[in-house]
Amino acid sequence: MELNWTTFALEILNFLVLVWLLKRFLYQPVKAVVARRRESITAQLDEAAARQQQAEELRSQYENRLADWESEREEARQGLHREIDAERERMLEGLQQELAAEREKAAVLAQRQLQDKVRESEAQALEQGARFVARMVEGLASEALEARLLELLLGELQQLPPAQRDALQALENGKAVPVTVLSAFPLGEQQRASLQQRIASLVPGSLAFEWREDRKLIAGLRVTVGPWVIHANLHDELKTFAAIAYEQ
Description:
By secondary structure, this protein is of the alpha+beta class. The chain is built from 5 helices and 4 strands. The chain has a 4-stranded mixed sheet with strand order 2-1-3-4.
């Protein structure tokens, strides 16, 4: 078979045209699709790598957070134990203080009760002693003794301190100042006059005297000038002595 160069040339031309057409309309689009696909795959791989790295970072953070949480939990547990121990110590200390205070109160109460009993016994003893002395001096009570006590009272009124004199002078308010004189025995006219004169020298203005007898005084007088009272009798002196002895 003879080679037909024309046909061969046309076949070559057809092949070249086919190759150009394939390259132009098939290879280039396929290549572009493959490139885009490669880029998409690369992007997906990069994204997967980034996500994996992010996941690794998150895992590392989570592990670190777990470690920190364990450390914080242990620290919180120890802190709670310390607070519980401190609270227990505080409560124990408070309880001990309360017990000490209660013991002190009980001791003070017992001491006070003991002192009250002692004072009560002393008061009873002093009262009995005063009664005994009162019974003894009752036999000595007489008008002569009362006269002597009146003399003592007049002497005291004459030698009153300035403060008491000022207090008596301040009683004058334009009205009659009431004066009550209690005596164990009736006073004579001369005795009443002496007492009136002495009181009148101390209290300015008018005086309204009232004279009464009270055998409870045993012997002596009790004079009340307004709110001011002076004792010069055995009964009040015995009571004063018992009170002073009890206070001591």
